[in-house]
Write a structure and sequence with these properties.
Blueprint lengths: L23 H54 L11 H17 L9 H21 L16 H24 L3 H8 L13 H12 L14 H19 L5 H12 L18 H28 L5 H21 L6 H4 L5 H5 L1 H10 L4 H8 L3 H7 L13 H12 L24 H39 L4 H24 L6 H13 L12 E4 L2 E4 L3 H18 L6 H9 L3 H10 L32 H4 L3 H8 L2 E3 L18 E3 L3 H7 L15 H17 L2 H7 L5 H20 L7 H20 L5 H5 L9 H17 L7 H8 L6 H21 L11 E6 L3 H9 L10 E6 L13 H14 L7 E3 L7 E3 L9 H18 L9 H7 L14 H11 L13 E6 L2 E6 L14 H15 L2 H12 L4 H4 L4 H9 L7 H6 L1 E4 L7 H12 L2 H12 L16 E6 L5 H5 L9 E3 L4 E5 L4 H13 L8
Parallel strand pairs: 5-6, 11-12, 12-14
Antiparallel strand pairs: 1-2, 3-4, 7-8, 9-10, 13-14
Helix pairs in contact: 1-2, 2-3, 3-6, 4-6, 4-8, 6-9, 7-9, 8-9, 9-10, 10-13, 10-14, 13-17, 16-17, 17-20, 20-21, 20-26, 21-26, 22-26, 24-28, 26-29, 28-29, 31-32, 31-33, 35-36, 36-40, 37-42, 38-39, 45-47
Length: 1226
């Protein structure tokens, strides 16, 4: 009987009914899980059975192989009786080769060290020996090669076995240098047969040579066997085709052998390599022979078949295709070995230079090597990389294209590169029969292949340069990191240096001249339609070989050398292009007659053909002037909106060419402006075949302009006349300007860079000594001026991006202002400069600095007779705080403060007087140049004076403050000094303004035709300072380096560089450092040297009285019609220029007119009426107002009494402006 328990739930037993029933999904899940378990169990059982079956099969196979080894050893290895009868050919095929192939397939015969591998290597060596003995047997019964002919099944069997022998031989070659060395050590103390293992690579080579050369098959050497021998040749050709297709791994094996046995000269090699092997040279020679044999056999077969009847045309095509594949294999696997020509013994190189081997390879490299590798095999690239040894793995970061480039260049030279005395090169030439068109095409393809890698390297170099600059600012890095990065960089620099060394023939003059000669013979002239200059081969358009193709090669070399050459960059190529005779004129002739640029020249010039007067240009046959109606010069001029005007001009210089005609604006400039819209495409619109020619021309000419002196440029007019220089300048100016507006500036950045460099060189030379009309430089940007504020912001963005190293994202206007600001008028650039200052003042004001009148200004008191010293002591320590407002009070000779408050005028007076005193040559810090203008340049001894550099830095701040506040100073600086302040490099001709005598001597030495050794010069200069002579070396060890005819140009520019750059660097840096505290260097980049002086000190030492009168205000009752005012302007007009400047300084504290006219004088020039009572009787008696004029320089106000007579006004005015006082005259 059940008891009820309170608080507990009653349990009722219903048998299974109390169990919770599973849902349908749960039941299905359980079924699926059970099914999966059963499936896995079945798979595990099947796997176990399979493993057991494989293991049993493997065991049985190994046992069978062991038995086969034992039987093979008993028959062929153990019996070493020299009197043993020869083995029949059938026995070799059936009982020796077939079992051996099975044995080696189930063993690790090339994995060392192991006893089994060593024994299999002995068997393979024995097999090769027996095969060689059989091939050398004249009896066909015992000659294995006799099986190559006969029934089809026997021939197929023989060919298959020959393939297997080749595979084993190639594997043997690939392992030479590592495995066989270990086998050689393991063979010590063994039987005499085991010693053959050490010579296994040699045996492999001998067997491959024998099997591919029917002349070694003794069974066919007897008379009457000619027909059979001919059939045997066909079998050998089939073997050559098999090898040419990449089967057997011949080329990969040769690559591995050369990498393992021949290290790179000049790079420390930590890999253990075989040394002292006596037959190494013979084995290597045999390997190269076997490697080249498929290509040679197939090439000869295709030629012989072509010479016979046409029935074998299909076979000839097949042989030709196989030969091309062999050349591709050779190019991809062998010519991409790093420093192949330097690795191999020189006596082995002629085999690779043979025309039948080299020329097909060059032809194969006429396509991108990446495409070549893909075509050969998908695993080729990984196979090539995996075969680099431990030492050669250091070279793995360089693309295969670079190694192929160096190897092709070295192999294409007929003589080794060598130098004679004093660095003179021996004459060299290409290998006989080289087709320059294919050679250049191959080099261009390889260089194009390098472009992505070069871009990565170039970007990394920029980043490393930026990081190193940041590290200099932050502090030194850890020693371990510096040492690690340094070792990697040293290794990379060594590799790049060796690579550039292998490319040395490319920047030899004979190399370029021979290519130009071939291009001339091919008739490579510019064509009307670029498509007409191309020939179709197999459906692929190829460019016609000519000057454009040669230019493309050297354009690519400029880019490659800039990255690869650690010591000099692209300088060797630039020297070649700039100093090769007639190259620049030929390039210009090609460009000016290129009809590929016709779509850029849309403006039509009416009238007859217009020639440059005095321009001596050789006619170009490619384009007829009569046909096109105008010369190249007029077409270019028409494109840029200019026309040429003949103007007769006499000259007294017999050796100089007549100056070209001046360029003037066309009367219909608006029409030209609308037609020039097509030029907005710039480099984007230039055809691809023209871009390399333009690039090479600009790079070479910019480099030549660095060393071209004024006599050559202006008098002798070489290499171009001044008329041509104008056309070149106009072309580059317009093309670069519109290039920034185009969308292709990123893709053709190198072209833009060299064009900008050449344009700047021409523009700076024109600034120093004009040869172009000023309007020529302004022509591209004619039209509405850009908004000043927008231009200033664009310039700031472009400057910031330039510091980051990414100029491709810069806005077009900003890029123009930072690179070619001269295309905008000077007035517009001055307004942009003032906008920079305005924005900077706004930032200072927002930061709480006092940049105007008011509290927080800096108060100073200076003595007029000690203005420089007082200014230096009170202002020098301010640095960039000098941008704040400075209030000045003067102390006169009596030690009393002068009357008046400084609202800007006194500070202007202080600044101009301080500059006038400090820049005075008698003060000792600056000297005047020998030119007529007497411009200023820092004294060379200023750095040796006490506080000399600090004083120069202070004066730099004073100049910066004047520019910042728009205050004009009295003195102007030498263009040489200004160019240094603007961060520009100075060259030989600028030395004339500093030391005319030294410049004349250097130019004389440059053109000296005798033996320079007679002058007894060396690479030193002697300085005289304070009576003491000091010798300075121009280069390390310069005392022991005599100046010769070969290095005199280097000496001339080394002296100029020392005088213009090195000697003055501390002085320039100090001045620029001070000026940079107030004026950003990028702001001054808007101006050239002449414009800088104009920005600093205004224009001429006089002003336009009418302009001043137009912008004068009158207060106190005066008007422009007042009697005293009219007398005043008559007096001012009759004053001397010096007196007028003194008047202007008396009123405004500055003797120069505002830069952009009196319209921009703030506050405006004002004449205030000062009423003076004079009795009528005094006036009748001839008396006038006795009071002197006074001035308020703070407000640019002249306080003029009411004079009645001109004489009185003139006398009082002269007295006032000469007294050098202001308020005290009141």
């Amino acid at each position: 009987m059940m008891q009820f328990v309170p608080g507990r739930r009653r349990q009722v037993s219903l048998r299974g009914a109390s169990v919770k029933e599973a849902s349908r999904d749960e039941l299905l899940g359980q079924v699926a899980q059970e099914r999966l378990t059963r499936s896995l169990a079945k798979q595990a059982a099947a796997s176990a059975l399979f493993i057991q079956r494989v293991w049993r099969g493997r065991t049985v196979a190994r046992e069978a192989a062991r038995q086969a080894r034992a039987e093979w050893d008993r028959e062929f290895l153990i019996q070493e009786d020299p009197d043993r009868p020869p083995i029949s050919a059938e026995a070799i095929s059936n009982r020796m080769l077939r079992p051996l192939f099975m044995i080696l397939r189930h063993s690790s015969c090339f994995i060392f060290p192991s006893q089994e591998a060593f024994e299999d290597a002995i068997r393979l060596a024995t097999c090769f020996q027996l095969l060689l003995q059989s091939i050398n047997n004249a009896d066909q019964r015992f000659n294995y090669c006799s099986l190559a002919l006969g029934f089809r099944d026997k021939m197929s069997k023989w060919v298959h076995q020959a393939h297997q022998v080749f595979r084993l031989a190639c594997a043997t070659i690939a392992k030479d240098g590592c495995g066989w060395r270990e086998a050689e050590h393991a063979s010590r103390g063994k039987s005499s047969a085991s010693l053959e293992v050490a010579n296994l690579p040699g045996l492999a080579m001998r067997i491959m040579v024998a099997l591919t050369d029917t002349s070694t098959w003794k069974c066919f050497c007897e008379s009457g066997q000619e027909a059979r021998k001919k059939k045997a040749d066909q079998v050998v050709l089939s073997l050559a085709e098999w090898l040419a297709n990449g089967n057997g791994g011949l080329f990969l094996a040769v690559r591995a052998y050369l990498l393992a046995n021949y290290p790179v000269p000049g790079i420390k090699d930590e890999q253990i390599r075989p040394h002292g092997r006596k037959d190494k040279f013979i084995v290597t020679a045999s390997i190269i022979t076997v490697m080249l044999r498929p290509l040679l056999l197939l090439s000869v077969a295709s030629v012989e078949d072509r010479d016979q009847n046409s029935e074998g045309s299909s076979e000839r095509v097949q042989f030709k295709a196989s030969a091309a594949r062999a050349a591709a294999q050779l190019s991809a696997h062998i010519l991409t070995i790093p420093f192949l020509s330097q690795r191999l013994p020189s006596s082995l190189l002629p085999a690779l230079k043979h025309p039948s081997a080299l020329f097909p390879c060059i032809r194969a490299l006429g396509v991108p090597i990446s495409s070549l590798l893909v075509r050969l095999a998908s695993s080729t690239s990984s196979s090539l990389n995996s075969q680099l040894g431990r030492a050669d793995a250091q070279l793995g970061g360089v693309p295969f294209s670079a190694w192929a480039l160096g190897n092709v260049v070295c192999l294409a030279m007929d003589s080794p590169q060598s130098k004679g005395d004093a660095g003179r090169e021996f004459s060299a030439h290409f290998v006989s029969g080289l087709i320059c068109e294919e050679y250049v095409q191959a080099l261009c393809c390889l260089l194009d292949d390098l472009d992505p890698w070069l871009d990565v390297k170039r970007k990394r170099q920029r980043e490393e340069k930026a990081v190193s600059k940041d590290n200099e600012d932050v502090g030194p890095c850890s020693e371990d990191a510096t040492r690690g990065n340094g070792s990697v960089k040293v290794l990379e620099a060594t590799i790049f240096q060796l690579l550039v060394e292998s490319l040395r023939p490319l920047h030899h003059q004979w190399h370029l001249l021979q290519l130009l000669h071939e291009a001339t013979l091919k008739g490579g002239q510019p064509v009307i339609d670029t498509a007409a200059g191309r020939k179709s081969v197999g459906g692929v358009s190829e460019p016609k070989f000519g000057l454009a193709v040669v230019a493309k090669l050297y354009a690519n070399l400029l880019s490659a050398f800039a990255v690869l050459n650690p010591f000099g960059g692209a300088l060797p190529v630039l020297n070649l292009l700039a100093f090769t005779p007639t190259l620049l004129p030929r390039l210009w002739d090609w460009l000016r007659t290129s009809r590929g640029l016709a779509h850029l020249i849309t403006a039509e010039v009416e009238g007859e053909s217009q020639q440059f007067h005095g321009t001596h240009m050789a006619p170009v046959k490619a384009v007829s002037d009569d046909k096109y109606g105008k010369t190249a010069g007029s077409r270019w001029a028409g494109a840029f909106g200019w026309k040429l005007r003949s103007r007769s001009r006499s000259t007294s210089t017999s050796h100089a060419a007549e100056r070209a005609d001046d360029l003037e604006g066309d009367e219909e400039s608006s029409v030209f402006a609308s037609k020039l819209e097509s030029m907005r495409k710039a480099s984007e619109g230039v055809p691809d075949d023209v871009v390399p020619v333009l690039l090479v021309f600009c790079a070479a000419y910019a480099h030549l302009l660095m060393v071209l002196d004024d006599e050559e440029f202006y008098e002798l007019q070489v290499p171009f006349t001044l008329g041509q220089q104008r056309v070149i300048s106009a072309m580059l100016n317009t093309m670069v300007y519109n290039g920034f507006l185009s969308s292709s500036k990123r893709q053709k950045s190198l072209f833009m860079d060299v064009a900008i460099r050449c344009l700047r060189s021409l523009y700076e030379r024109d600034c120093r000594r004009s040869f172009c009309e000023p309007e020529l430089w302004l022509a591209p940007a004619k039209g509405e001026p850009p908004p000043t504020a927008a231009a200033a912001r664009a310039h700031e963005v472009a400057t910031a991006l330039e510091k980051m190293g990414d100029t491709s994202q810069a806005p077009a206007l900003g890029a123009i202002l930072t690179t070619i600001p001269h295309v905008l008028p000077f007035d517009e650039r001055v307004q942009i400069f003032r906008e920079f200052v305005k924005g900077d003042k706004m930032q200072k004001r927002m930061g709480g600095d006092a940049v105007g009148l008011g509290p927080g200004s800096i108060e100073i008191a200076v003595r007029r007779d000690h203005i420089v010293e007082d200014g230096f002591s009170q202002l020098n320590g301010l640095g960039s705080k000098l941008k704040c407002c400075v209030n000045v009070s003067f102390v006169n000779e009596l030690g009393l403060a002068e009357a008046g408050l400084d609202y800007g005028g006194l500070f202007k007076e202080f600044l101009t007087d301080l500059a006038k005193a400090a820049f005075d040559p008698r003060y000792g810090l600056f000297v005047q140049t020998a030119t007529e203008e007497g411009l200023l340049f820092p004294h060379a001894a200023a750095a040796r004076l006490g506080h000399g550099l600090r004083m120069l830095e202070f004066l730099g701040r004073i100049v910066g403050k004047a520019l910042y506040e728009g205050i004009l100073l009295e003195y102007s600086f030498s263009p040489l000094f200004v160019s240094k302040l603007l961060g520009r490099y100075s060259f030989l001709d600028e030395l004339s303004s500093l030391d005319a005598e030294l410049h004349r001597n250097l130019v004389y030495l440059k053109h000296y035709e005798g033996d320079v050794r007679d002058l007894a010069l060396d690479f030193t200069v002697t300085e005289e300072l304070f009576g003491k002579h000091t010798t300075v070396e121009l280069r390390p060890g310069g005392t022991d380096i005599p100046v010769t005819n070969e290095n005199k140009l280097q000496y001339v520019h080394a002296v100029a560089d020392y005088k213009l750059n090195r000697q003055m660097r501390p002085l320039i840096d100090a001045f620029a450092r001070g000026m940079g505290d107030l004026i950003a260097p990028a702001w001054l980049g808007l101006f050239n040297a002449k414009e800088f002086n104009q920005l600093l000190s205004g224009g001429d030492h006089d002003f336009d009285v009418a302009d001043l009168r137009r912008h004068t205000r009158y207060t106190g009752g005066y008007t422009d019609a007042s009697r005293t005012v009219r007398l005043f302007w008559e007096v001012v007009a009759r004053l001397e220029a010096e007196e007028r400047c003194a008047l202007l300084k008396f009123v405004t504290s500055c003797s120069r007119a505002p830069l952009l006219g009196f319209k921009h004088l703030q506050p405006a020039f004002t004449i205030h009426k000062v009423v003076c009572d004079t009795s009528v009787w005094a006036v009748i008696g001839g008396q006038d107002v006795d009071r002197l004029p006074s001035a308020s320089t703070c407000y640019n106000t002249l306080k003029l009494p009411t004079y009645k007579r001109m004489v009185t006004l003139r006398e009082k005015l002269r007295y006032a402006i000469k007294s050098n006082t202001g308020f005290e005259l009141s």
